[in-house]
Design a protein that fits this description.
7 helices, mainly alpha, globular, two-stranded antiparallel sheet, 214 residues
């Protein structure tokens, strides 16, 4: 699958989890403003003294960006990929050592890739009190990449080092089916930003638009 597909599907799944979490915590329809204290998403019993709208936006911004990074990470094994082009030394080493669509496109690779993010998020509370679950959204992005590549006829070795390739044989890269997937997930992302209270929705819309079209 293409870079565009991986990032939009990763962001789509992350946003779906964020919306579901907000629904469960009764935040989507709450009247968050600069004069209202926000309930922290990761711990509904903890409140923050900083303006609720700002904390809420930083939290969503942070989670979505980690999902975006996670959705690109498996292709670090390809020096011509979006991420591989920016991390050439690491990308070249992995490509020469393992090849494309091998260890980084497996459950083992997802575990290895997510572990540093998990350890950092457990030892450092980034952006107030919600850094501890940051690894979860990186993992969502990573998993989304593996899932979309499984839909390609070539498939991926989920159980690497076992070299069996698993495929749903559904989408060929660059076909109209993949383009429709991009349109659907991208449209959901942009529309979902308006489920949140203003002015958060406007800032989130701009942020998502940048990630979708970049």
């Amino acid at each position: 699958m293409t870079y565009k597909t991986h990032k939009t599907v990763g962001l789509f799944l992350a946003m779906a989890f964020i919306i579901g979490n907000n629904i469960s915590n009764h935040l989507i329809n709450s009247n968050i403003s600069s004069n209202v204290v926000a309930i922290n998403l990761t711990n509904p019993t903890v409140t923050n003294s900083i303006p609720g709208g700002l904390i809420f936006f930083l939290e969503v911004f942070y989670y979505l960006y980690l999902a975006y990074l996670g959705s690109l990470y498996p292709d670090i094994d390809h020096i011509g990929s979006h991420l591989g082009h920016r991390r050439k030394v690491l990308s070249y080493y992995i490509a020469m050592k393992f090849g494309h669509r091998t260890i980084t496109h497996s459950l083992l690779g997802m575990l290895i890739g997510t572990l540093p993010v998990f350890l950092i998020s457990q030892t450092t509370w980034i952006f107030f009190n919600f850094g501890k679950i940051a690894w979860f959204y990186f993992t969502i992005g990573y998993f989304s990449h593996l899932f979309t590549d499984t839909m390609n006829p070539k498939g991926i070795p989920w159980l690497y080092p076992k070299k069996t390739m698993y495929s749903l044989n559904h989408f060929q890269m660059g076909t109209s089916s993949e383009e429709w997937m991009n349109v659907g997930t991208g449209g959901f992302l942009l529309a979902s930003s308006f489920l949140f209270p203003t002015p958060i929705s406007y800032a989130l819309f701009v942020y998502l638009l940048i990630l979708v079209i970049k």
